[in-house]
Amino acid sequence: MSTISCHIGILGAGQLGRMLAMAGYPLGHKFGFYGLSHDEPASMLGHMHTPTQENTDDTSNLDDLVSFADVITFESENTSVELVKQISQITPVYPSATSLYYAQDRGREKALFNQLAIPCAPYALVNNLTDLEAAVNTIGLPAVLKTTTEGYDGKGQFVIKQPEQLYQAWLSIGERPAILEGFVNFKRELSIIAVRNANNEHVYYSLVENQHRDGILRLTLAPAQQIDPAIQQQAERYMQALLDKMGHVGVLTLELFETEAGLVANEMAPRVHNSGHWTMEGAQTSQFENHIRAISGLPLGSTAARQPFAAMVNIIGEHGDIQAALKLPNVHVHLYDKAERAGRKLGHINVLANSQAELNQTLEQLQAWLS
Amino acid sequence: MSTISCHIGILGAGQLGRMLAMAGYPLGHKFGFYGLSHDEPASMLGHMHTPTQENTDDTSNLDDLVSFADVITFESENTSVELVKQISQITPVYPSATSLYYAQDRGREKALFNQLAIPCAPYALVNNLTDLEAAVNTIGLPAVLKTTTEGYDGKGQFVIKQPEQLYQAWLSIGERPAILEGFVNFKRELSIIAVRNANNEHVYYSLVENQHRDGILRLTLAPAQQIDPAIQQQAERYMQALLDKMGHVGVLTLELFETEAGLVANEMAPRVHNSGHWTMEGAQTSQFENHIRAISGLPLGSTAARQPFAAMVNIIGEHGDIQAALKLPNVHVHLYDKAERAGRKLGHINVLANSQAELNQTLEQLQAWLS
Description:
Family (chains A, B): Belongs to the PurK/PurT family.
Binding site for ATP (chains A, B): 106, 146, 151-157, 181-184, 189, 212, 266-267
CATH topology of the largest domain in chain A: D-amino Acid Aminotransferase, Chain A, domain 1
Keywords (chains A, B): ATP-binding, Ligase, Lyase, Nucleotide-binding, Purine biosynthesis
Radius of gyration of chain A: 20 Å
EC number (chains A, B): 6.3.4.18
Shape of chain A: globular
Order of helices and strands of chain A: EHEEHEHHHEHEEHEEEEEHEEHHEHEEHH
Oligomer: homodimer
Pfam family, one (chains A, B): RS_preATP-grasp-like
Structural class of chain A: alpha+beta
């Protein structure tokens, strides 16, 4: 075996774990997963460990993964900070509990943005309906009520437009600890992906544009068009501040709003991200490979684009006519081996092009997945 | 699960099976292998089946793979034709026993080349020393004595330069059924990879140049430089004749000599081939993905190059300083998770470039693996 190869454990066995493993095997690494069941997307791609009773959050069999692994990473920012601290006593976990602590709670995340002078929406912590009324008085409407933890793909959010919606909003998010955020009037939604390894190397991918529907990412355009180089540099400075402050090792994603006044941070994820899936064929080194390189102590790879234009189209709910997509040149299909279900991410299609016209033409041919 | 997804069984679990599986998971397929032991390169990448007594050629546990699989393929042309015929009674095997029959025996292969008017070296079948003497009288010296079956990486071959070497040559190849081939005075060694699916689609990659040392492939240059388009077309015509004659489904590789008189066929392999590893990042669709597409009834993907120049450098015997390679942009490392051993293929490094100068510069930086 090569001297660079190691055993990597992943908490979670969904599509992110699946794509991390596929990016890591070519480096000679071996993979193990702790997932909910043997049906999960990553389950064929390494040693699969599950709770004794599948589909529960029991961690009694986690020891098997920990003893297998030289290093452990996780798929979700909702991973328990306490659990990661416990594992870290035995086996290194990257990103560390510190990154997880900040990234899994919107209140801590916003406080960190403020501390690092990264612009973000005004916000207030909300623990009950009285807090919410006070917060609305300070921040004004429209505003967005979000649970502090565990929201994703638009879940756990309510856009409050009128004062009489407060109770409805509070019920809607499950009467849980939340923050109220001022509504940001944005032109586009952007994101940036950065990577840091323990040797303090930093690399950054280009800002990309993300288009959502019903709170779910549908389309990423890479790079985002008409971005002033100064804006890219500013985004990279924000990322460097976050990476260094948290001592982050691995991929970090920051979602941003592009506004008249400049970039406004929305939220960060301490992991590979759907808006980075275009990098699989679109960049010299994918976000998945760079995450694996970072956590396994290897030099980071080039983030340069391989072609001038790329896009990522999510396959949501139903697979559709995959054979039609496979017939297109410059298109790469990535399926996650998941059963169809409304709103579920089943795969994605990467598109590469040498011109905007070529990109638009191919996206036109993929309209079935975008409409 | 998607309607295109299926279960694929692979006879063998080496690096070819490993890379086939990694190319097939993104299509939603699942993989199983029948290999010698749980230490093989593909063993982590699907259901692994082995003989009851590992590292034997016992096939008693093969039923498990056959019942798992919707379709079966193989890694090696040395797979038993009889075994493939038996399996085919239950589960389709692609390429079929017909392709295997021709490709695993140099005598049958040469006869097929002659039948299809594909130029190849003069040859004679040799079953004993008397045959060898007669063959040398007909064909002349120098000539190459090769076992009809199971030779690879230069094993089972002897170049006869002088008449007094006949006995030494016969002993050297193990006194087994062989052919004597006239020595071909070639300028370069080339190869071409083609793919056919059951819907009679054919696609072809560009001719590449292969540089060997001690009978082992060291370097592939893709595409081969200074190839007249008429030569590429001729190679494609030869491939189409072979694919159609054998009803081949999957990847077929043909090694060729470039001579003053044109292309001369050397040998074919009914499988993905080391000289096609550059396609992983170098082509729109890799040879591995196209093989999987072909055997699983999907449309074939574009074989166009993604950048004008590509190369593949084999990692032989020792891994060397992999971190140094990882630091180079435009370079992709693929390790097979194998222990170091003299002459063993441990991985390969793909190089991509936009100019000959850029390619040469990167190959210079990879000299440790080429010298």
